[in-house]
């Protein structure tokens, strides 16, 4: 499952696992999970995370994500996290 790595102005990195699309919504860039057969963002897409567009320096697609939608970059340092017991997927974030 794909993920996106976002680099912010303050050089912080955020990752959105489970996202397979993103789009600008007003002042925010929102990351979505779409149905596997569909490749468009529509009313059935699930919003996972949003970031202020003016704070984003780079967006990079990363293949091979952690199981379940999460926000964070731990999976970039540890590609084989499936064997770890302490990982529980976070609930998807919702934007207003």
**Strand coverage percent:** 35-45%
- Spatially, the strands of the biggest sheet line up as 2-1-6
Distance between the termini: 26 Å
Please tally the β strands and state the result. Answer: 6
Mean pLDDT: 75
How much helical structure, as a percent, in the residues? under 10%
* Order of H and E elements: EEEEEEH
Number of discrete domains: 1
Describe the protein's topology.
Blueprint: E1 3-8, E2 13-17, E3 21-25, E4 28-33, E5 46-52, E6 56-62, H1 74-77
Antiparallel strand pairs: 1-2, 1-6, 3-4, 4-5
List key phrases describing it.
single chain, 96 residues, mainly beta, 3-stranded antiparallel sheet, 6 strands, 38% strand
Short description:
The chain has one helix at 74-77, and strands at 3-8, 13-17, 21-25, 28-33, 46-52, 56-62.
What does this molecule look like?
The chain is mainly beta. The chain has one domain (3-77). It has one helix at 74-77; strands at residues 3-8, 13-17, 21-25, 28-33, 46-52, 56-62. The protein has a three-stranded antiparallel sheet with strand order 2-1-6, with no helix packed on it. A three-stranded antiparallel sheet has the order 3-4-5, with no helix packed on it.
